[in-house]
Amino acid sequence: MAQQELGQWRDLAQLREEIDQLDQQLQTLLNQRAQCAQQVAQVKTATEGEDTQFYRPEREAQVLRRIMERNTGPLSNEEMARLFREVMSACLALERPIKVAYLGPEGTFTQQAALKHFGHSAICLPMAAIDEVFREVEAGSVDYGVVPIENSTEGVISHTLDSFMDSGLQISGEVVLRIHQHLLLGENTRPDKISTIYSHASSLAQCRKWIDAHYPGVERVPMPSNAEAARKVCGEWHSAAIAGDMAAQLYGLKKHAENIEDTPDNATRFLIIGRHTTPASGEDKTSLMLSMRNQPGALYQLLEVFNRHQVDMTRIESRPSRSGAWNYVFFIDCTGHQQEPRIQTMLAELGERAAEMKVLGSYPKGVL
Amino acid sequence: MAQQELGQWRDLAQLREEIDQLDQQLQTLLNQRAQCAQQVAQVKTATEGEDTQFYRPEREAQVLRRIMERNTGPLSNEEMARLFREVMSACLALERPIKVAYLGPEGTFTQQAALKHFGHSAICLPMAAIDEVFREVEAGSVDYGVVPIENSTEGVISHTLDSFMDSGLQISGEVVLRIHQHLLLGENTRPDKISTIYSHASSLAQCRKWIDAHYPGVERVPMPSNAEAARKVCGEWHSAAIAGDMAAQLYGLKKHAENIEDTPDNATRFLIIGRHTTPASGEDKTSLMLSMRNQPGALYQLLEVFNRHQVDMTRIESRPSRSGAWNYVFFIDCTGHQQEPRIQTMLAELGERAAEMKVLGSYPKGVL
Fold first, then answer.
1. 3-state SS of chain A: helix, strand, coil percent to 5?
2. Are A110 and A270 in contact (CB under 8 A)?
3. Is there a single domain that holds both residue A301 and residue A335?
4. Binning pLDDT at 50, 70 and 90, where does residue A105 land?
């Protein structure tokens, strides 16, 4: 027994030695990578001058995609991409940290999106309103802005769409934060004995149809947060909570039903806005703003163009235009980059049919 | 010229190729490190059983210190340590993510401290009050708690000290977030023409003495945040802002005077609390709680013990005891670990002189 323990400990010591050696190699490579990044910056400054863009969204998207493709584990694609995002963020900050304005306050999902996209070496500053984010980017006091564009509970963020009407800024990226909800039970709770479901009001709303179908007579009690709902359920035998994975893990609750949100793609989407256009990354999206004359079949004629060019429209939203009482403005996302001839032809045709058209930007499809 | 440009572009392509190769090597090493960490976990589970502690604060502190010692740059020690914290966090989460309760809400400095210490792969959950953090750790629903212990503006967080009186939890680490304030001016502002200083009320308070000495007659105007103060100053010729580096960089303001906070070590300190003792890391601190009989010279006798054993006392705070009307409780931090014979001898002596003594824990001195 003593000998076995000794053997085990020797193994542990060996493993730790191995980890230390790996760490040394990692550190050397990280500094080499940082040196290369510095050289890239020097070359770019020499050719492009003072106004050089060190941050290249399309290049970063390509690097992350490649990393995820060739990943063998045991680290998951998500964790690996997150680590490399931080590495790129640290290398970039050596030259000059990226400055980012986001819709605050601190601690919101928009901050989370900003950090997910730019890494923790970026300087991220909260703004009080969406149009302030636009203004800071336009004024050049920050490099990029991060604003929410659609949200499963609140729908489209119309402030953001409206800000685009008056702005010359370009979309240079998107970030998607996925949110999944589960029905969580304590260990000894029987699913057929539930009389109360606790959750935050917005989560109860997100899962309304599912609750109607599966627990129609059950009382729904709003709580200050999903985490508190989960905690409450720990000690109760006849209640359940709706909350995410984190709360389930934290309180050791069973997931009786997973992903019960009514919209299968329950997520909040954010846009990165900047002053520059972004070259194609190989997997891109293009966002447009179009206004139509108020005549029968106008919308159909619009959609027909996308269909004929076999361009996949991923989203369409309409907003009342500010300029004319009867005009509508459509915000459209489609796959493809405005550098592609196929998209260029389609855009030209759309421009002829629309009263007004503005390309808000082509940008890499959100990685992860 | 065209040829030079071509040459430059070829260089860029070469550099990017080099970065891609470095990234591939980095990725391989990261997955190898994760595999080693998995093997460590297997060995530990085999010898220590179900209740194994995978997270070892003293080991992590050692790894980070070594990384900072041998760092050659260009990445700074801080950035390098941050990257490795994330790597360790990701490797650890493969086995089982660490669960951490912190004093919420989200977006506070305490969350920042939790993420700085445990990395972004940990599950961090906000609690509404300090004693809730203690309760969650005691109940075993989380592995660790993060609570503020001292804050330059509010002083010691007495709630945290009081919670230790009733708790059997151990301190297993500390995190320090440093906060520096500067006097910031717009490019064309003359320092001798300033009539107004803008800043958040707590920053104005933190720099009160400095302002009294250097700008006695100047109006102090509180703002909702330091960032807004900095922004306001951009457009004004006769005003200055007090804010940190981030705001200075963001708004391109000059630092007319740096580190003007009255306490030179302006920082917020947080404690990591857990259920286990932490072995020595080589550079440790020990925290004690002592109550003295209310007799003349009691405090002096206490301090004499530290002095005689040449143990460096880094902090002392007194709180009224809850048990007797005339007793005081002292919270003392000193350098050294309770495993060291020198500290053990001193603790034994202190225990004899004190009415009551509790060792709150020995833990690695905060890295960074």
1. 45, 25, 30
2. yes
3. yes
4. low
Average pLDDT, stretch A60-79?
92
Cα–Cα distance between A10 and A3 in angstroms, integer? 10
Measured between CB atoms, which of A8, A18, A72 is closest to B47?
Answer: A8
Print the domain residue range for B196: 182-257
In chain A, which residue ranges form alpha helices assigned H by DSSP? 2-48, 57-69, 77-95, 109-118, 130-139, 158-165, 201-206, 208-214, 226-234, 245-251, 298-308, 341-353
Give the mean model confidence (pLDDT) for residues B338-361: 92
Contacts of B216 (CB under 8 A, 6+ apart): none
Are residues A121 and A190 located together in one domain of the fold? Answer: no
Residues of A numbered 110-129 whose beta carbons fall under 8 angstroms of chain B's beta carbons: which are they?
111, 120-121, 123, 125-126
Q: Tell me, yes or no, if A67 comes closer than 8 A to chain B by beta carbon.
A: yes
What CATH number is associated with residue A241?
A: 3.40.190.10
- Measured CA to CA, the distance from residue B366 to residue B64 in angstroms comes to 10
pLDDT at residue B220, as a whole number: 93
pLDDT band at B343 (very low <50, low <70, confident <90, very high): very high
B33/A22 Cβ within 8 A? yes
Furthest-apart CA pair in chain A: how many Å?
Answer: 88
- The whole-number pLDDT of residue A2 equals 44
The tokens for B313 are 């006392």
CA dihedral B359, B360, B365, B366 (to 10 degrees): -170
* pLDDT given at position B156: 66
Q: A279 contacts in B (CB within 8 Å)?
A: none
Smallest Cβ distance to A36: which of B22, B70, B106? Answer: B22
What is the average pLDDT across B212-228?
Answer: 86
Closest-CA residue of B relative to A40 is: B12
Tell whether A355 and A250 lie within a shared domain: no
Give the number of domains in chain B.
Answer: 3
Residue A268 has pLDDT above 90, yes or no: no
Joined together, the tokens standing for residue A79 give 């964790």
In a domain, A73, yes or no: no
> A207 near A242, Cβ under 8 Å?
yes
Interchain CB contact of B82 with A (< 8 Å): yes
**Cβ pair B250:A99 closer than 8 A:** yes
* Confidence band for B152, pLDDT divided at 50, 70 and 90: low
Is residue B266 predicted with pLDDT exceeding 90? no
For residues B145 and B196, membership in a common domain is answered with: no
pLDDT computed for residue B235 by the predictor = 79
Residue of A nearest to B112 (CA): A107
pLDDT grade, residue A3 (50/70/90)? Answer: very low
Burial class (CB in 10 A: 0-12, 13-18, 19+), A295: exposed
